[in-house]
Amino acid sequence: MSNAQKTDDYHLLVGTYTQKESEGIYVYHFNTKTGEFSRESVAKGLKNPSFLAISPDQKKVYSVGEMDNGGAVYAFSFDNASGKLEKLSTESSGGAGPCHIAVDKTGKWVMVGNYGGGSLSILPVLPTGGVGAPLKTIQHEGSGPNKQRQEKAHVHSINIADNNLDVYVPDLGIDEVTHYQLDSKNGTLKEAKPTRTSPGAGPRHFTFHPSQKFAYVINELDMTVTAYNYNKDGSLSDIQTISTVPADFKGTNICADIHISPDGKFLYGSNRGHDSIVCYSIDSSTGKLTLVEITPSGGKHPRNFAIDPSGRLVLVANRDTDNIVIFNRNAQTGKLTPTGKEISLSMPVCLKLIPKK
User: Fold this and answer.
1) pLDDT at 4
2) Alpha carbon distance 283, 188 (integer Å)
3) Alpha-carbon distance 292 to 268, whole Å?
4) 81, exposed or middle or buried, with CB in 10 Å at 0-12, 13-18, 19+?
5) In angstroms, rounded to a whole number, what is the distance separating the alpha carbons of residues 223 and 99?
6) How far apart are the C-alpha atoms of 213 and 206, rounded to whole Å?
7) For position 3, what pLDDT does the model report?
8) 160 and 105 Cβ atoms separated by less than 8 Å
9) Rounded to the nearest 10 degrees, how much is the dihedral formed by the CA atoms of 51, 142, 96, 353?
10) Under a CB-based contact definition with an 8 Å cutoff, are residues 352 and 54 in contact?
11) In this structure, are residues 203 and 158 in contact, taking their beta carbons and an 8 Å threshold?
């Protein structure tokens, strides 16, 4: 974080769906003080590079290739001077429809969640920075009460704690945050005790509080956020579950992404259908959430969003209106206001920032 705070200049990397005009992964020069941006490069020839992960040294970028048949993991080197990505390797993700990817703190292991396949795979990082074939693919089993969406397991995200040991994997299909422990020497994942969510909740994305005392999951299907104590033994214990939409909302909505402000005071989540960003204040002693406001996302289907490391700006990727809307964030109140600036890009899905050196 110290590097991040020394600069206002970043590379903004955008993962996309290539089903319309998008050609792959886009890189922009982005200034977090002014909100100004300019395109630097495009990594082309990729199929639905929807979700991205950055290596600890910020010199490698990993992406899923979200395909129903034969999902892929792409590996790239990243040139900080030019903002260009160069593909190093393409490997199987070990399952269909990979939708999330993470790199461990050593930079030696890449983990990918296969939504369609209901599995997670761990891949070794090679000396070149590319990835090898999956060492192991772990298959989840089960279903949930929502017959349309929970007919089987659907792994939705991979979340590695600061200790590089605890790995939490929300599975939308089985209403479970599964828990694994990573051995970073040999890349093995040992199953630990899972955390059950409410039936039909559909847990999706997950985030740790900067204090590492609390963790939060956004539940896609029942439109809630659940707060947990993150205990020293790696277990999660419920604190609270709170709605992401107004009490009188009657439309169709599913939740997507979740992030906490760098100072740990506010939590944000995205609503697709209600098309908004919900903001809660966080009680630093209990981890409990209190609703602050719900802000229109400036487009349709806000799939993913990012808070810049200074905490000044929030960028929201609206997939179905092909725009990334830039908001100012009030550090005292947590509230968002549109800057009037937006990036036009076909089907943006994932936003990642790398400090420009």
Assistant:
1) 41
2) 36
3) 10
4) exposed
5) 20
6) 14
7) 41
8) yes
9) 10
10) yes
11) no
Tokens at residue 259, please? 């992030």
Determine whether 213 is exposed, middle or buried from the number of CB atoms within 10 Å of its CB (0-12, 13-18, 19+): middle
- Quote the Cα angle for 352-356-357, to 5°: 140
Cα–Cα dist 39/19, whole Å: 21
Sign of the dihedral through C-alpha 312, 157, 72, 104: positive
Q: Give alpha helix (H) positions in the chain.
A: 2-5
Is 137 buried (19+), middle (13-18) or exposed (0-12) by CB count in 10 A? middle
Percent of the chain with pLDDT over 70: 99
- Average pLDDT in the 116-139 region? 98
Nearest CA among 204, 203, 182, 201 for reference residue 191: 182
Q: Could you report how far apart the first and last alpha carbons of the chain are, in Å? A: 14
Identify the burial level of 150 via C-beta atoms within 10 angstroms of its C-beta, where 0-12 means exposed, 13-18 middle and 19 or more buried. buried
